[in-house]
Amino acid sequence: MPPWNRGYPPAAHVVDYLTAYEKCYDLLIRRPVRIEAVHRDGDLLRLDSATASRRARHVISTTGTWWRHHTTLRELASGMTGITSR
Questions:
Q1: What CA–CA distance (Å, rounded) separates 7 from 80?
Q2: Quick one: 47 exposed, middle or buried, by C-beta within 10 A (0-12, 13-18, 19+)?
Q3: Continuous H helices in the chain
Q4: What is the DSSP string of 12-80?
Q5: Phi, psi (rounded to 5 degrees) for 38
Q6: Whether the Cβ atoms of residue 73 and residue 63 lie closer than 8 Å to each other
Q7: Which residues face 60 on adjacent strands?
Q8: I need a surface site. Which of 1, 2, 22, 45 has the fewest CB within 10 A?
């Protein structure tokens, strides 16, 4: 994220950065989504919500606020070297 030298960056600064990051890497981001279940589906994971199912190689679940975030790694792939294609 671009530096911010006056304490915590304002929300607009963070949102602008995350928006540009998502566009740069062509990330498929869905908000808000409540995942009801995660299942193994061959080499992938299947995520089920009330309205749809999606498959993914890696899942990162986060919650919390900007300065007090909480991250749970459901699947930690030891060979992961960066962004993977969809």
A1: 33
A2: buried
A3: 11-24
A4: HHHHHHHHHHHHHTT----SS----EEEEETTEEEEE-SS-EEEES--EEEEE-SSSEEEEES---TT-
A5: -125, 130
A6: no
A7: 73
A8: 2
Question: pLDDT of 6-29, one tens digit each?
Answer: 888 888 898 899 889 989 999 877
Give the per-residue pLDDT at 69: 55
Any bridge partners for residue 41, and if so which? 44
Decide: 1 and 14 in contact? Cβ < 8 Å: yes
Residue type, 34: R
State how far the Cα of 13 lies from the Cα of 23, in Å rounded to an integer: 16
- Closest Cα to residue 21, out of 38, 4, 2? 2
Amino acid at 24: C
Task: Catalogue the long-range contacts made by 53-59 (C-beta closer than 8 Å, 24 or more residues apart).
Answer: 57/84, 58/84
